[in-house]
Write a structure and sequence with these properties.
The structure is a homotetramer. Chain A is an alpha/beta fold. The first copy, chain A, contains 13 helices and 14 strands. Chains in contact: A-B, A-C, A-D, B-C, B-D, C-D. The interface between C and D is large, with 71 and 72 residues.
């Protein structure tokens, strides 16, 4: 049989924008013995994770947990709220927004896909005014939902969701607001209730630091109301029965127990650190990363500084350099995985993940690997990104490490 | 936070018919570091598990692996092959057959639910002749699929799937054959190709000894053909793109890597022991268990000896005894979980799981816990089931333990 | 390389009297990352385990923790308190008492070895009156220490240490009292302070449920005083520097960090259950085990009911049956390890461990494996030991399992 | 109870010169179930680790494995070969050489301690000619053994053992050669047989990447011969019985099974990578580290380039800067542990470990943490050590990462 211990001496640096490195604590929690999902302890576990995850979404409304990957939670958001042939307004921020739109088509919806032209749209966030304009024009309220991606994993752009909410309200339009923050949750600030989101979609393998296999729908009262008349067929993804059984901490079908152990531990870690501290850490690391890219004389994929992603940084490679060839050098020489350019950006950029289980020194290792790899690949760098990042990080005032004892 | 180490001194005996106890080897494998699901090692892992799982299903055709619970694989089997309003012939063998039928309704299909009346149908297997008769009557071929459960987890009955195939053929009917062997796979003999099954649905948390979170569709050429015209909306569950990407060992969306590590280890364990030895072990343990039940003077739920389940044994409790009260005594006094009676059998039976990570002595512990618990509950037993089981097991000729060295 | 996953499907039953099965909780704790043994967190860990272990020994005096096996702690007890050529009175209770005596000789001490003749001495506990008589005769106080084994692992006899203390006091003799409770600690009641023991020797792999590799000396003021003039050379085992550095939670040389994590978890588990509950559990399991042996018509090795061991039961095999051949059958057929007969008892008995991570059902599995194995070996049994044990256990009133939530 | 998950978000960097970071693979191996140390599988495990460890020491002679820390193996080397009052020639290379000398005194030996004066001796290796001169003068052969440290963990100096052997031979002196390579083994080249070492002492928690708790004596025929007449009392440490029982893969007393699992895995990892590749990796990382120190304008503790340690680098801090205050900043701000200055070097230097589970990027993280910490502490650096290390590493030609598949 194949040996799964793939990597050689020294730790592998998994610096893709998710799955992010899973902390040992979470892997250990996941190795607790599987228990009876109908037994008395399970209810206690269920109630605890359901309550904890609400804090992460900043909601007091139900969060549905699926024993499935994030793509499934996209589907759940659509099938629970919409009917065959419904028009949905979707905004193209990048590859994942595009995939979500394709899914909507496959499910028999009519997505209207708007956005800035060419790769320009992949370098900026959602333009809320464009949404507002389109909704104002939709006087017949044909559009049933507005779908946007909060943190676009393919580009490193974190759109302003509050602005989208404001746009919908300004247009006086009744469309639901569905938001994908699969890669944003627990890394970038997110406020399901305050921002008036109807369905928030998320997953486990990014800011929550879990392996893939759990996904979420946080839902509003309006979304639940919509689900009562929505006609897309659904069973596995149906909210009603899940939300009902969740009241006692159980699920209508077999939940993935061991990943829930991991989720429980992740919630413990994140709430212990404090959500604000988690966000500040991601902000600091992403700022240092962008300074490095700029010092190298390369371009950050995100062209609008107000929507830089705290989770990942897209790095555009100069003309004549295949980004994937550079990634291969870095992988084979420095045992580090970086994200590839997706869709329109294939070969033109690579993505550095700095999310979840990440700190100043893991970022420095990452940047050093990039800098050396770029040099080996023959890219002429304007200066040392590593040096720039160190200058910045050494200046930051952060409280000293608190020992647990 | 809640402490997850729920159980007191000494090992908990998880003797429900799934999730079954997860072997340490598999928990350890699941704690390997999460890797890039687009990186070079992942493809090697993917190809290996895809090839290994075919051996378990006894098929050379594609097996689709979902990062989702078994209920999802039920949905996948239906949505990939059928269109809204299609009639499906479903056979009531117990609670799970009933749930699958409800799902078919929820998805907009028209299930026709046949079976023996009352609890009688829950004590016997699928009556292939009834299926044949129904199909013969369907001269217009309105019925698009026949759906049966191989090992009915709610009753402990393992139906004869070859006979169902034969019935369909005898009727000369073109309906697809969809089979749920969620709890049967890798514990009871199963032959996807030889039995001419079109879609076999299974899951991870039973004979495969994994935690819940992975599920399967083994598919036939005919099923794939059907999927090209089937009109139920689908995206997450769609076979086409998955089967295409699987050719190189990858998946179109994020697979649940760490559970795949576990699957890889499970395949290694099962193929190392040998499928025939695995089946023989389950046969031996289930035979011993039934002898114990008979020695106690209680009734086995399955009333037809030709379809006894090797995976679990349903035990009917005498009049006047609530099966769940007995289960509670056993749980609180002996730290053992048994399966509850489901649906029509609520309170009238309990279920003993003897599947997956099980051997003679773990069964003896289980039976001793049941026997003592029944006595404490005040049930008058005809004799010692534990003694009967020991008499049987001590007689069995099995090869001595082979040391790995 | 050799595959370490030695055992086939289903759990191996490790029923030797130590190393006992290590609970998953402890294995998980041991997998925490190794930290700087001079860093700030280490001191917190050190102080906690040092304080916890005192509760287990029931002492307020220092407990020295060695990063070494139990045999080393035997040596430490002797070298810290005695000088070359010193006479020590040692009592033969079995194989381990004999090994300790050999060690004393190897270290240049003069052990005087007393006890009942033949195997009779291996079937009864320490005869305190014989010790008293010998000490009264030693008017010149040539004897510097009395060495006894509390729980003799080779026989299943737990001697009365309070009686030995009383004997020494009655004789008005200044000898130190050194006690080995390597296999007794945290399973049988033990009171270092109340019983006036000067050095108690113990280890990790028995009642503490850890893997081997940690051992202990609990020491009295009198023992520390003796160490100031004791002349046996010592360095690694020397108490003084260790006790001094332990004040801040550190050790003079590298402690075995990951086993200390395990110790911390073990202390947590044991103190959570409550020492008295732990002892009661061992008493119950050992009583059930002896009833089984008696029902089989076999003899328990321990011939004195007042000193039955709660940790293990020695089972004497009938004339004409090689105990090791029976053990081999049980190992190869039922995947269970039992303890061999040691020294004088080689081939004449086997030992059943029922200690540490043990409960009613794990004992029942064990007894069932013994009963079936004895039958397969051709031993004529008077009756069912399994039945006798079940009758006894089902009668016991113990509080219901408390769910952690 | 105290929570053992001490560290906050992101991985802790344990960059002390041992215990070194334990790879996940080894932690997982250590969590295999403890087995009967007298059972059939154990012998297979024992034979395998005993054979594997010989390859690491480059010897065909016995390697004694102790279930104890490295300090114990120091004691074993002395007590097995020497008699009370024996004179031993010991060479002062640093703090650990000094501790070994103190141990010799405590055991009743007469160490003669030679070396260069002041801290000069702590900045250079063993001067073989001084040893030769001393031995030539010892015409009466009063000196029974020469004791030297191969890799002095307190300074970062790796002495030339072949030269010491040559010196002894040149002097025609019969003294035994005892060498401590506790921190050198499996990181710096070491040749027990070729260099004619009589006893090599080592431990688990450095190049072998295990937690502390296992230690070694590799022994020569001459050493075994000496042990027959050596009169220091010994029992736990005695070679004879261990070597005898090792022939079948067992030990006379309880070995620490779970650490042996870890050792088995470590041997697998190291031999798979290839010892020469392991050494080359350590050489590369240490060279990069020294270039960084020099670029900072700081002094490497080791003043002789021919004996730089591949395992650790001692960094001397400028006048007016307390090295421990700098370490504290780095610990609290960057979650990285560095080694303190020991003995004569207290406060004047810190030690960077780059051994075992280490690669280019983990070194870069380490150096970045040092560079930023030094700046925060106010040390004026001549230039960027991180930049210098990157320049060097990017130039190295090493084969691309080999994927296991």
């Amino acid at each position: 049989m194949l040996k799964l211990d793939f990597h050689p001496a020294g730790r592998h640096f998994l610096q893709i924008p998710g799955p992010s490195p899973v902390p040992d604590r979470i892997l250990r929690a996941m190795s607790l013995p599987t228990i009876d999902h109908r037994g008395p302890e399970f209810g206690a576990l269920g109630l605890q994770v359901l309550s904890g995850i609400q804090k992460i979404f900043k909601t007091t409304q139900p969060v549905v947990i699926y024993p499935a990957s994030g793509t499934g939670a996209w589907e759940a958001a659509l099938t629970n709220t919409l009917s065959p042939g419904d028009t949905v307004l979707m905004y193209e921020t990048g590859h994942f927004a595009t995939l979500w739109k394709k899914m909507a088509e496959a499910l028999g919806l009519k997505p209207e896909f708007i956005g800035l032209p060419g790769i320009e749209g992949w370098r900026r966030g959602v333009q809320a005014d464009a949404i507002e304009a389109r909704l104002r024009a939709d006087t017949g309220h044909v559009i049933k939902a507005v779908c946007v991606v909060h943190n676009e994993t393919s580009t490193g752009v974190t759109s302003n969701i509050a602005a989208v909410r404001k746009a919908i309200d300004a247009a006086g339009h009744p469309a639901l607001l569905l938001v994908d923050t699969i890669s944003g949750l627990a890394a970038a600030d997110y406020r399901h209730d305050e921002w008036g989101v109807d369905v928030t979609v998320s997953g486990s393998q990014k800011g929550l630091m879990l392996p893939p296999g759990i996904s979420f729908n946080a839902v509003s009262k309006k979304a639940i109301e919509a689900s009562k008349t929505a006609k897309l067929p659904r069973a596995f993804w149906g909210w009603t029965e899940i939300i009902e059984m969740n009241k006692t901490g159980y699920w209508p079908y077999t939940p993935n127990t061991n990943l829930l152990y991991g989720l429980n531990e992740a919630l413990d870690m994140i709430l212990e650190e404090g959500l604000d501290n988690v966000f500040a850490r991601h902000d600091r690391l992403s700022a240092a990363c962008r300074l490095a890219v700029q010092a190298w004389g390369l371009e950050v994929q995100c062209a609008d500084p107000t929507v830089y992603s705290p989770i990942l940084t897209g790095v555009m490679t100069p003309e004549g350099f295949d980004a994937d060839a550079i990634r291969k050098i870095i992988y084979e020489r420095f045992n580090m995985s970086l994200g590839t350019g997706l869709g329109k950006m294939k070969g033109r950029m690579f993505r550095i993940g700095h999310l979840g289980e990440a700190n100043d020194l893991s970022l420095m290792a990452t940047l050093a690997g990039c800098e050396m790899g770029l040099k080996i690949a023959g890219v002429k760098l304007a200066g040392s990104g590593v040096g720039a990042a160190m200058d910045f990080l050494a200046e930051q005032k952060i409280p000293p490490l608190k020992i647990a004892a």
